[in-house]
Amino acid sequence: MRVAQPAFPDELPPLMRQGAELPHGVLAGGLRRSYGDSCINDGGALVEMTGLDRFVRFDRTTGLLEAEAGVSLSAILKLAIPAGFFLPVTPGTKFVTLGGAIANDVHGKNHHRAGSFGRWIRSVSLLRSDGSACFVADDDATGLFAATVGGLGLTGVMTRATLQLAPIASSNMAVETVPFGNLGEFFALSGESDASHDYTVAWIDCLAQGDKLGRGIFTRARHASDGELRVKPPGGPSVPIDAPGFLLNRLSIAAFNEVYFRLAGRARQATVSYDPFFYPLDAIGGWNRLYGSRGFYQYQSVVPPSVAADATAEMLRTIADAGQGSFLAVLKTFGDVASPGLLSFPRQGTTLALDFANKGGPTLWLLDRLDAIVRQAGGRLYPAKDGRLPPAMFRAGYPALDQFTTHLDPGMSSTFWRRMTP
Amino acid sequence: MMTPNPLRVLILGAGSGIAQATARLYAAEGAMIGLAGRNAERLTAIAADLTARGAAATEIFDIDFTDPDAAATLAGMVAKLGGLDHVLLAYGVLGDQALADRDAAAALAIIDVNFRSAAAWMLAVANLLEVQGRGSLVVLGSVAGDRGRRSNYVYGAAKAGLAVLVQGISHRFRSVGPRVVIVKPGPTDTAMTAGMAKGGPMWATPEAVAAVVRKAADSGGPVVYAPGRWWLIMAIIRNIPAAIFNKMNF
Ligand SMILES: Cc1cc2nc3c(=O)[nH]c(=O)nc-3n(C[C@H](O)[C@H](O)[C@H](O)COP(=O)(O)OP(=O)(O)OC[C@H]3O[C@@H](n4cnc5c(N)ncnc54)[C@H](O)[C@@H]3O)c2cc1C
Q: Which residue has the higher pLDDT, B165 or A247?
């Protein structure tokens, strides 16, 4: 893979034209926080966009921000927070680019209110691999906007985008954590909290079985209504070496889960800075090394509301039976705000995000079992977190795929895309 | 974020990675920033970025630094900015050492940009600061100027020349009035080094170097390494006997 690092937009057209001539074409890349192969292009060219990180204009009264696509969400927060604005939607790490967030149409803990990231994108400047440039607004009738949002970088390179930020009165969050004993209680809590809180999410103990199946801790939060507007100073501990595999056996995860559950054993309220609330993993550089040198698989699904309770229970049972726990099992209800992209992952229903230490065959076998449940439920998987999604499962989950394909830039491709469309 | 008396900053070579990162620090302080360089379109994009980040105002100067009349051009810029507090001289080219080994014109081109024209601008700025009795000039040097090595010694020689100029100007200013500092970054992840294998403990980000540059304009000097550990590394490297050094492969 040849990697180019342009620093100015005028360098892009020649890079795109050269890349498009390679057998595997060219792909734009951001901060490579996608877990799978959608941000790599083996045998082709990758244009790393992080040097294109300039703001174009920022209206401090309306919160409308235009920026180059390589700017990070972290840099946007540094600009926006002192001015009384916040990202309308944010993923669980701030080290992603604006372009990357659009290309995966990312979601946050406020999906039930705000929908996906793409809903807040007013326009995108796109450069196609033949050198032609176009500007697509969210009311675009050609379908190119809908193809680009969530379009996995395959419709062209986004050079700039305009984002509507959300006003805040404080950089602090009023957070409440409530333990729940089983999956039924989760759905009840989620239903009631989605109506009252901007942000909701649950951590699940996915080794718990029987009548404790789906026990966990529910977090609901709002931006504090007054207080300071302060950007968090950088820094924090990092994980220096790969953790040995024995840390990740069933017993240690069970022990971790038990301790975590006990610690959070009663409901509590607190006011905390936005940063540890939204970005707990960002404080630990190299957290992925906790999984050791064999790495791990992420797995994130969404299933429709009508079958959500049953399908989620079945997934959790399957995981508990397999004895392959996940430190990070996160459950969240997506609301009914439609995502603008043809290939956007978020849709109404319940989403479960897991990560499994890579134990080879047994792990892949478990993921296949989970696939079957998700597919049966009419759900789908998140390409940004994927390293092994079967092509048939991709097709089944994304019915607008054929419509999307008509907007593909013929000079662009990715390892993921070639795997999905053999 | 209009401050009543914004700092007036002139950046020569505003398109470089370190210059942009430094300009962002000044913008966040609400400074008024003059951006000099060779590509108006790029400077316009940088200016918009700085404005969004809080710069009081920006001015673009589309110039060729190798033009001989630095003093007159500088006077025009200062008039436009309405005064001058800080100057950062950040332009330079790495050039192709292998080509310069064989081709004198290529070697002289590296020296012309990195030393000859930079010297003219430094002297013009020094004279101006001396007249006004205050202000600071920060020059971007390089650790490559501390010891010649075969992979980039023409570039290194030019940067070494700048270091001696800074020494002299600093001596001339003594400890009163204006300040002059040379900042010597180690390898930095910028467009100039695109194509080199990066990462590892030796490489710094432009942001880390920019923080050193910004601080150097206010205090310390006249020689500052960025990051600071390069002071120790270069002290060792400078003192390795040539008989040993020349056998080393880096
Ligand atoms: C700790 C952690 C937590 C996360 N939490 C969440 C979460 O809560 N919700 C969620 O939705 N996701 C989450 N993610 C996933 C992450 O938000 C997405 O993968 C995001 O898209 C990564 O952006 P990036 O800048 O790193 O892009 P990359 O990973 O480098 O690229 C992602 C895609 O964007 C394309 N792309 C990048 N820049 C451009 C451009 N300028 N023009 C065109 N295409 C471009 C690439 O081609 C690729 O297809 C999380 C990831 C991590 C590591």
A: B165
